[in-house]
Amino acid sequence: MDFTLTELERDLLDLGRTYAEREIAPIAAQAWHEERCPTDVLRGLGELGLLGLLVPEKWGGIDASTVGYVALLEALAAVDPSVAAAWQAHSTIGTMPLLLFGSDDQRERWLRPLAEGRQLAAFGLTEPSAGSDVRSLRTKATRAAGGWVLNGQKAFISNAGTDMSFGVTVLARLADGGFGSFIVERGATGYTEGPKLRGIGWHGLDTRDLFFDDVFVPDDQVVGEPGKGLGQFLSALEVGRISVAALALGTAQGALNLALEYAGQREQFGAKLSSFQAIQFKLADMATQIEAARWLTYYAASLRDAGKPFKKEAAMAKLQASRVATAVTSEAVQIFGGTGYMLESPVARFYCDAKVLEIGEGTNEIQHLVIARELGCA
């Protein structure tokens, strides 16, 4: 297991961490309370070259390792999980299908501006009646002269409705029962975006429903071979699970950082909270849980970098790290006491942001199934 970052990746991590502390941290709470996606800081990340971390230089990216990507994602999430969530959705399920399965013309036309940070990527999978049960998708693609016609609705789609968004890559059912991936640009006739949805957390992430009413998609906007779209998405999703694990690590670490700071300042009964054994034990357990999940996550990332199977390890990392995030943020609120329960408290934001990590990119129940099957269970 080699988790060592290259010199370039260390520089990128320092660059991203400095930018997060200088530019993202001051506006994170306000954007969260305003329920606004701060695309100005995402553009700033793009200007630094950090929106194409997993994309080869040939297509405008940096071609960092998965381990390097995870390290930067964790650092961003420790400052603002919402911005980090937008960044990871763009970098994985939004961008990977185009990188892995798109034609060179598609990569030049759509992948390059995404990798160079000029636009934001989104992928449309989930529907009102289908999430983990992908084969129940109802959005349909019907063959037409020179292309396809899409009809249906997608739900909870991130990054599709910002002023940076290029549109969305959509997974739709074909007449023969297979699935295809289709690029739908903003402004296409019949394509509309619902209002920004309001979740418990990730208030700074733009998430909304998308509607397709006889949307025509030319043949040159089909990603890969029609009928193989589901396999394409599942391939990208495995990287997404590592990303969610890294998001969870950063969210948990951000909450721990706040708890440590608060415990070192808050006085009760004439002493700092950090001097009480009960608080010390909580903090020790939180740090230990994060570190254990971190090793599992970086291990999954290193397997991908080595070209080895990582499906099981990615699912394990996502499962464990998301559990740790919900547990650690809950304990952080407990350390803050009544102050932590108030939405104005910085730790409350991390607490609210943590829960979705057990749901997104495949629920934890699905991760159990993936792991069990990889273990050989029938």
TrEMBL record:
PROSITE patterns: ACYL_COA_DH_1 (PS00072), ACYL_COA_DH_2 (PS00073). The keyword Flavoprotein applies. Its cofactor is FAD. Keywords: FAD, Flavoprotein, Oxidoreductase. The keyword Membrane does not apply. One of its GO terms (molecular function) is acyl-CoA dehydrogenase activity. SUPFAM superfamilies: Acyl-CoA dehydrogenase C-terminal domain-like, Acyl-CoA dehydrogenase NM domain-like. Belongs to the acyl-CoA dehydrogenase family. This is Acyl-CoA dehydrogenase. It comes from Paractinoplanes tereljensis.
